[in-house]
Here is the input.
Amino acid sequence: MTDRPLLPLAGQGPRERSDAARNRDAVLAAALRLVDEHGAGAVTMESVAEAAGVGKGTVFRRFESRTGLFAAVLDHSEARWQESVISGPPPLGPGAPPLERLLAFGESRVTRTLSHAELFQAATGSHRRAYPVWSFTSLHVQHLLRELDVTGDIPLLAAALLAPLELPILIQQVHIEHLPLPRIVAAWQDLVRRVVIA
Here is the structure.
């Protein structure tokens, strides 16, 4: 054996030092907490560094800009949410009947999307999701529809169910039409049941 560090495998980045990983996690957690507490517009690189207990230079070296930081926070938060869908407790995670999982998925997605509205704008300059996020949610909904023995064009049915969960639609309903969140969730769940029963 050799004492030299091994080269990373294809598609794998270089290994991160444990202190660098701790700093990254602290910065991402602090940034998300500050966005939740004060809104994205009030969060600066300096305030994140102070809340994370690291130097301002550490934050700038790691994320380069406020936009880069917010994009990393959004990616980190999305990855944690996807983990809860894949392996978290039921009904969002495995172990519940597929209809319960699908209904829990929609409610969770609505709540999460609205709570991250400012973060989406700060990270991307728009309210559109990245394709990998859409792909994950679409494949998950398609999987649950197939488990429910739904017939028809499953990819398009999944897209039809996901469209009302997208941020521009939710902003229209919540902030412009002033529809209460429970009504939006209940209407989406009614739509799901109609698709499943049809």
